[in-house]
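Human: If only I could read backbone structure tokens as easily as an amino acid sequence. Underneath my words sits a plain record pairing an amino acid chain with its backbone structure tokens. Take your time, and here it is.
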Amino acid sequence: MPVQTLNIATADGQLDAWLHTPEGPGPWPGVILHTDIRGVREAFQNKAAALAAEGYAVLLPNLYYRVARTPVADPQLGLSSEEGRKLFFGLKDTLTQAGLKADHQTLLDWLQAQPQVRAGQVAVVGYCMTGAIALHAAADFPQRIAAVASFHGGHLVTDNSDSPHLRAPELKAAKLHFGHAKDDASIPSEAIDRLDQALRAAGVNFSSTRHDARHGFAVADSPVHDGAAERQHWRELLELLRSSLAG
């Protein structure tokens, strides 16, 4: 599949990103694909390419661009070491709601201006920490985002005033899907129940699967990668995209 290496201008610098597209001129429905906490790397380039093969123009951005360009770390470095935890949680702490909202404004503007991308609404897909980021984006830009998928997304329900679940009334314009992991400390079972209740109360169109797999199951280079659960997540993601990005 064709892929472009990009530097997208923002108010805070050059955002490095990649656009994966199908063969042919298109135009194709647009998808913004966000990585887990470890940033852009081969596992997510492969996801973007696989989505492009299904008929989507997939923008894969480096959300850490303000402090680090890709690769943000040794691809072999994970969260099992103290070094990895310090690095990646430090990077995560550099992301702010205001900055992410501005970034999504830029990403949506850029993506929807490309001739190979179909005009109209797009989808946003997040893994781990970016499940919450994807939900905030849909709440911030309800007229521009038709669908959101969150897989083993963490901290979707918190006691903070900016908890994603509190934005449920702002999410009614999008179709949502959640693929939860089992025994996930970042969103335990009772928190999933609270999320579902908030979404139902707000009249949000959503679906939810509780996978029999651990947090990180859908990422190929995760130490808890689960092939069967990843294949199921892929089927769920494609069903969401096909039903919400028709054409």
